[in-house]
Amino acid sequence: MKLLLIHTGGTIGMVQTGIGFAPAQGVLEAALATLPTPAQISVMPLEPLIDSANATPADWNRIAAAIEAGHAVYDGFIVTHGTDTLAFTAAALCFALAGLNRPVIVTGSMTPLGIAGSDGLANLTDAITAAQTAPAGVWVQFAGALLHGARVRKAHSSNPRAFTAAASTTQPVQAAASLHRTPYLACKLAILTMAPGHAPDVIAHALTACDGVVLRVFGAGTLPETAEIAASLRAAQTRGTLMIAVSQSAEGGVTLGTYAAGNLLRENGVIDGGDMTPEAAYAKLAHVLSLPADRRRAALARALCGEISAFPA
Questions:
Q1: 193-211 b/e with 16+ CB inside 10 Å = b?
Q2: Which of 32, 191, 214, 255 is deepest in the core (most CB within 10 A)?
Q3: For 125-151, what is the mean pLDDT?
């Protein structure tokens, strides 16, 4: 079995420097050489290796393009990635690669491979196994768990069991007759979190300066019913800004219309994000803004790859 390991950087391949941990060449390859595996593994470092805090949609494109190029050659793929934005990248790959019929396993670690007691070697070993056995789709392998790539979120900043994911009956891949990659195009996106007394001019600017906005609203789908926010939502709808609402609560999601205080959202064209994670909602916005304009809103409102359980596919 032939596997391709795409190394982007992140903690798993870092070394100590004078200003803190930073990515270094050769760390992952040295660890990989110590692992007994029946698979033939090729390593593709994506230079320059980065801390995932610096990841952008351009990096999502580089990873997806490497998977597309090797899709007919390799039986499975492993992506080593920093944990800070790993959930964004996993979701982005789910949306970008329709018709994927190979497992893509995204993994990383909370401590570098060269540190005593690192979780990196166990995660890497498990990811190699998953790349040979998991169903087709984009998965996150971490701390012994195989997690849905479009449902995963980083729930802890330091514990080795850093990631969680809500259950899904849908595999993390868009259905298509054959592999089709949709590159992420340049666009202006933001995640805007509601808070009591949030400065209205900041909300107004974000909603009218961006092509798409994720609104992190209260509970089941409410926000302050102020004249300023109402005017900003109307202006954004008139401009054509795509808006999707997700809950600030880690579980349960939003159901727009449950409370009168959420009517502003429905009245102004905000898409109900159900129980989607903010990471998946952000990546999905980037994806639909890379589609033809007449397809964007419909794609944003329906389930594409199991990223949401509140709506049918």
A1: ebeeebeeeebbebbeebb
A2: 214
A3: 98
DSSP 8-state symbol, 229: H
How far, in Å, CA of 282 to CA of 62, rounded?
Answer: 18
How do residues 238-257 score in pLDDT, each as one tens digit?
A: 999 999 999 999 999 999 98
Residue with tokens 């391709």: 4
Q: Among all residues, which ones are annotated catalytic?
A: 11
Q: Domains in the chain and their CATH numbers?
A: 2-181 (3.40.50.1170), 189-301 (3.40.50.40)
* Pairing mode of beta strands 242-247, 212-217: parallel
3-state SS, residue 265: helix
Token digits for 174?
A: 């868009």
Strands 163-165, 152-154: parallel, antiparallel or unpaired by DSSP? antiparallel
* Residue range 125-153: mean pLDDT, rounded: 98
Beta strands at 137-142 and 103-107: parallel, antiparallel or unpaired: parallel
H-type alpha helices, the chain: 27-32, 57-70, 86-96, 120-133, 200-209, 227-239, 263-267, 278-288, 296-301
Q: Kindly state the percentage of the chain with pLDDT values over 90.
A: 87
pTM over 0.85? The answer is yes
CA 170, CA 157: separation in Å to the nearest integer? Answer: 28
User: How far is Cα 31 from Cα 26, in angstroms, rounded to an integer?
Assistant: 9
- pLDDT tens for each residue of 17-27: 888 888 888 89
- Reading phi first (left if > 0) and then psi (alpha if -120 to 50, else beta), residue 27 is in alpha
Q: Which residues pair with 44 in a beta bridge?
A: 6
Q: Per residue in 113-135, pLDDT tens?
A: 989 999 999 999 999 999 999 99
Per-residue pLDDT band at 109 (split at 50, 70, 90)? very high
Query: How far is the C-alpha of 43 from the C-alpha of 35, rounded, in Å?
Result: 14
